[in-house]
Amino acid sequence: MSFRQFNLHMQIEKGIEALGYTAPTPIQLQSMPVILQGKDVMGLAQTGTGKTAAFALPILQRLMSGPRRTLRALIIAPTRELAEQIHEVIGGLGRATKLKSVTVYGGVNKNPQIRALCQGVEIAVACPGRLLDLADQGEIDLSHIEVLVLDEADRMFDMGFLPDIRKIMKRLPTKRQTLLFSATMPDDIRKLAKDILHDPVTIRIGTGAPVSTVSHALYPVEPHLKTALLMKLIERTDTESVLVFARTKHRTTRVAEQMKRAGFPVASLQGNLTQNRRQDALSGFREGKYQILVATDIAARGIDVSGISHVINYDMPDTVDAYTHRIGRTGRAAKTGDAFTFVTSQDRAFVGDIEHVLGERIERRTLTDFDYNVPAPAGSSDAADRPRHSVGRRPARVSEYAPVKKRGDSVHGASRPSGRRSGTRSLEGFSAFRSSSKTR
Ligand code: AMP
Q1: CATH code at 181?
Q2: Among 108, 352, 358, 382, whose CB has the most other CB atoms within 10 angstroms?
Q3: Are residues 200 and 253 in the same domain?
Q4: Atom of ligand 1 nearest to the CA of 306
Q5: What pLDDT band is residue 37 in, cutting at 50, 70 and 90?
Q6: Is 82 in the pocket of ligand 1 (CB under 6 A)?
Q7: 304 lines ligand 1 (CB under 6 A)
Q8: How many domains does one find in the chain?
């Protein structure tokens, strides 16, 4: 299968070649013909499947005819990082077309965005808040929009953007093509889709499980040993770029600082950083200056760094969807990647949810030569270690984790804590983790 079958404009084919895409991915194969026909699409696609090009290519094709320097395509994304990434893909695919795209998001000076809009662009890639601001101020003319894309709609819902999205809808022409992409389908998104899509074709890639090019492993550990385990694990594993997820901004900064002190090439990415520092962290990570990036979920949203070989969940995510999104940062477009997740005894019910979605049991690993017996410092109690999985979309399936006979603790080279010690939290819950013999 090649891109030729889509009969795209020659200048667009040049862009495909320049990006090195030789064959369409499954979502491109399924959705591009439908989008090219002008139909509305509801795309249920995992991250890392190539969905950006799946909508960007037909949009470029549409814009090749018709007026130039008129804003005709609007793509709405939840975060500025994702907006930048989509803008870059459009820039790469559309280089030879002379079509122009602009990003519109908050946290930066709005004047350059307004100037770019005044000069005339065909495509805007926007986050909802700034887009509404500019629309309210009359700085962006949405009256000629022919095609609207809502990307990562479930994440926009998680971030509270749905009211803004509905306001934006009211400003758009009713006669338009609408494409809605979402990795999952919570009720509110289903309702939004019903309201804004006209006779949509539904395209489903995968079942909401994380990309299958990723292999998964769990590392049971007590909370106070997570940073030490993280450093040991990275030292001992053959990695390219490593993306580490922590639960809060504070933890993100703390873990990165501890690693930096220990000599690791690390940067952190969290929502409190200035745009300059975010860019430095992101470009440094992309270019290999920082091999490790510690980030919160929202900050890491949409990161597309081709060499991410490992995603490490320092903290378990809040929902199965968040796990899917995090893991989608590695194993992108048929590359393989490893997803390691640190689990404390409090996380174990949630592990069942993830395994259910994956459709398989995740291997438990322990690290040889790592001292799992170091007691917690006196008085340490980190509230953020307490998982918040209750926000998951499915109730935790605790039943799978009814205590089982302690077995399978046959861990090579690592001593496994066997009970309660003073100053440490109990790891008895891990009896349910039938550890595999594979260790690193
Ligand atoms: P996305 O799901 O759009 O974020 O894309 C994931 C990654 O796949 C990005 O790095 C894209 O550049 C890459 N990609 C998209 N389509 C193709 C393709 N047809 N062949 C190879 N790589 C692709």
Answers
A1: 3.40.50.300
A2: 358
A3: no
A4: 10
A5: very high
A6: no
A7: yes
A8: 2
Mean pLDDT of all residues in 249-274 = 92
Q: Is the pTM of this model over 0.90?
A: no
Instruction: Answer yes or no: is 440 within a domain.
Output: no
- 179 Cβ below 6 A of ligand 1: no
Exposure b/e, 231-258, CB count within 10 A at least 16 = b: bbbbeeeebebbbbbbbebebbbbbbeb
Mean pLDDT within 165-193? 92
Ligand 1 lined by 49 (C-beta under 6 Å):
yes
For residue 439, being part of any structural domain is answered with no
Return mean pLDDT, the chain: 81
Distance 371 CA to ligand 1 centre (A): 41
Taking the centre of ligand 1 as the mean of its atom positions, its distance from the CA of residue 47, in whole angstroms, is 10
Question: Residue 285 sits in which domain range?
Answer: 214-433
Last residue of a domain, one of 183, 204, 225: 204
Closest CA to 43 of 32, 124, 322: 32
pLDDT in the model for residue 431: 25
The whole-angstrom separation of Cα 53 and Cα 89 is: 7
| Claim to verify: residue 184 and residue 307 sit in the same structural domain | no
Q: Is residue 146 domain-resident?
A: yes
Residues 6+ apart with CB under 8 A from 175: none
- Based on the fold, state whether residues 83 and 170 are members of the same structural domain: yes
Q: For ligand 1, is residue 418 a contact (CB within 6 Å)? A: no
